[in-house]
Amino acid sequence: MSKAPIANQPLYKLWGGGNGNDYVTPYSSHFLLETPKSRAAVAARLKSQGWRAMKVKAHYKTLNEDIALCEEIRKQAGDDFTIMVDANKAGLRIPALSPTYVPWDYRRAYETAKAYEQLNVFWLEEPLPRFDLEHLSMLQKSTVVNLAGGEENQGLNEFKDYIDCDCYRVLQPEVNITGPLEVRKILVMAEASGRVVCNHLGDGRFGTILNMHLSGSATNYPWVEMANEQPIGGYESSYAIFENPPIVRADGTIKLPDGPGIGMTVRKELFTDEATPDRAIGGG
User: Fold this and answer.
1) CATH of the domain at 242
2) Where's the Mandelate racemase/muconate lactonizing enzyme C-terminal domain (predicted)?
3) Which residues, at least 6 apart from 57, have a Cβ–Cβ distance to it below 8 Å?
4) Among 152, 146, 179, 166, residue whose Cα is nearest residue 89
């Protein structure tokens, strides 16, 4: 027997509705390594659709290519489009997605950050190994570009270390690792130290919806990561399991779910009482 929701409110309101709005702002997150010109063309298309920001990978072999990537995006998308760059140097590496991956030393990270200053890059994500607190701190103090990271970190103590050592101005806990209640504590620590939180993706479905609620509940959670690698992984495909999927509107925002809890309903046709040969996983 199902139970009716007690408060009948969405999570972001139960958590305080900190930004006073019923919407959040996503950024289009990309994981493949494309040529600078092709990425710039994507950026221009995204902007025409209403998106305000995108994140791209910097896995090129040379510094010049890393710079050319953002130069081309800035040319095509204009000065009012926000660029985030993910270096992925904190440990996680997926060879199929980054075939030209090379580790960075401090000098490469520093030169990249200084070049990105001129291109108004909003953040540089994971430029060095995650526990190299000394060099992360040195790098953050030497650049106006925000450093970001934390997607594989666990426990409040690790995020407190980033704050105490002034390593990252953008904290990125992964909600599927840390959990939403711990993220709320990280939000408080970040706010007290003048930092922002922009969670890692989540699972691209339920976890990302949780991130939307967390963003809507806080004053220091400005961007929500949304995987959107067209045409193979557009965001619409990820949320097709829901009856009421989130839609990026013409102004680049997403309306927060207003139903109780996470406010999402999985399409009924995806459920079955009994597994049948044609519906069972692996059947056919």
Assistant:
1) 3.20.20.120
2) 36-146
3) 30, 31, 32, 33, 85, 86, 87, 88, 97, 98
4) 152
pLDDT digits (tens, 9 = 90+) for 145-169: 999 999 999 999 999 999 999 999 9
Phi, psi values for residue 99, rounded to 5°: -65, -20
Nearest to 54 by CA among 64, 69, 63, 68: 69
Which stretches of the chain are assigned E, i.e. beta strand?
23-24, 26-29, 53-57, 82-86, 123-125, 146-149, 170-171, 196-197, 224-227, 254-255
Residue 282 lies in a domain: no
Q: Is residue 219 part of a domain?
A: yes
Confidence (pLDDT) at 277:
46
Residues 9 and 14: their CA atoms lie apart, in Å, by 7
The owner of tokens 């680049």 is: 252
Q: What pLDDT shows up at residue 280?
A: 36
Which residue range is the domain that position 224 belongs to?
11-270
Q: Rounded CA gap, 209 and 213, in Å? A: 7
209 token code pair: 């919806």
Do the Cβ atoms of 29 and 199 come closer than 8 Å? Answer: no
Q: Is 4 a member of any domain? A: no
Written as six digits, the tokens of 210 are 């949780």
pLDDT, residue 273, reads 61
In angstroms, the Cα distances linking 144 to 102, 140, 192, 223 are 24, 8, 20, 19
Extract the residue ranges of the chain whose pLDDT is less than 70.
Answer: 1-5, 92, 96-97, 272-284
215, part of any domain: yes
Q: What is the pLDDT of residue 97?
A: 66
CA-closest candidate to residue 42, choices 228, 223, 204, 226: 228
pLDDT of residue 274: 52
Are 203 and 228 contacting, i.e. CB atoms less than 8 angstroms apart?
A: no
